[in-house]
Amino acid sequence: MDLKILIVFLYSHLLFNLTICVQPEQSVISFEPSSISITTGQSYHVNVRLLIPDIIPPDVFIMFLYNEKLSDPQGYIQTLPNITFTKQTGDDQSRMVIVSGRRQGHLVVTAQSPQVNISSQYDFLLIDIARSRTLSILVQLVGWIYFFAWSISFYPQIILNFRRQSVIGLNFDFLALNILGFSCYSIFNVCLYTSHDIQQQYYTKHPHGVLPVLLNDVVFSVHALIACLITAGQCVFFERGTQRISYIARIIGSILTVFLVVSSIVAFTNHLSMLTLLYFFSYVKLVITMIKYVPQAWMNYRRKSTEGWSIGNILLDFTGGILSVVQMFLLAINYDDWSSIFGSPTKFGLGLFSILFDLLFIAQHYIFYRPITRRTDLTTNGENTDERTPILSTQS
Ligand SMILES: *[C@@H]1O[C@H](CO)[C@@H](O)[C@H](O)[C@H]1NC(C)=O
Ligand SMILES: *[C@@H]1O[C@H](CO)[C@@H](O)[C@H](O)[C@H]1NC(C)=O
């Protein structure tokens, strides 16, 4: 029995925590704060504290490494002085160093000492050096605006359904895929944000990384899921004609769900790390983001109308999408770091992809299938007039 547990333990450690076994698991020094944001020309005071004062004497001599390079801050900041902790320092084993920004970018400061083994995995200082404070504020502002635009983008559809007491025109495949997608995204965000274990797995994999989930991601995804569920409730109670979820969407949804269930079982039997499992959930969300608009666009085309499909939703989605891409560019300019855009094309590509689909919907609504009240203006387009007639009857 004990042997079995031991084997499972060793097995999972060998597979996923290889680096942890090699590294000492204890923090030796700490930086307070452990991450700072400054601009070029600005200085910041950081405390370096020795966490194991028992080992003194002898003196502990500390040198700093910058992005893994010893004693060379590569122009990002002014070189930090070496530190020596001596017994005379008394109880308070901390020293203040001044970090002065020189050049925009990201820098990881770690430490090294001949007397103690300092783990660069646990003890590090993250420094973001921005070009300008104004840009930093603008980045935050843009972030909040798109957060709100995306968050409220679900309401125009809900209000429209309520006003019409009907969901005719809203594609059920789109809604069903959205519910599955936001469920996955919520699970990803909530677990990564709340679970200390999974965060540790993340940091093991990305030693000096920043957790990719913030509180507003959690709030956004859970709120989006609730809004989609409310819309689904409307589909149950309001007039829906002959609309239903198509077989193709059912099959796609089932395949993705089975994939996640099987992965979860494998993960819960310890053959897959929880972090990898969560990434599977996020990949499913990505797949859904890429396909979810197709059925709605096709349905609008078939009906030659966008009646019942809220353009407010699309305009807000479009605003959010544009601003999220703008924010990526602002960040790249501010930190002179274009790798974040072009190095990981997923986020950027998805942003662009949604924007293109929104443009298609905007064209459908305002150009191709203009609301019926203006139909008399479009005398040149006789062919379309015939096809609109049956829709009129379903709406009345
Ligand atoms: C820190 O000490 C090392 C080794 O003695 C030396 O090479 C380096 O120049 C010193 N750095 C500073 C900033 O004094
Ligand atoms: C640091 O680690 C190495 C190998 O892991 C070991 O040989 C050395 O004695 C350690 N040094 C201290 C000061 O603990």
From TrEMBL:
Subcellular location per the Swiss-Prot or TrEMBL entry:
Lysosome membrane
Q: Which reaction does it catalyse?
A: L-cystine(out) + H(+)(out) = L-cystine(in) + H(+)(in)
Gene Ontology CC: lysosomal membrane
Q: Which family does it belong to?
A: Belongs to the cystinosin family.
InterPro entries recorded for this chain?
LC_transporter, PQ-loop_rpt
Question: What organism, scientifically named, is this protein from?
Answer: Adineta ricciae (Rotifer)
Topology of the protein relative to the lipid bilayer: Multi-pass membrane protein
Lineage here is: Eukaryota, Metazoa, Spiralia, Gnathifera, Rotifera
Query: Could you tell me what this protein is called?
Result: Cystinosin homolog
Keyword Transmembrane among record annotations: yes
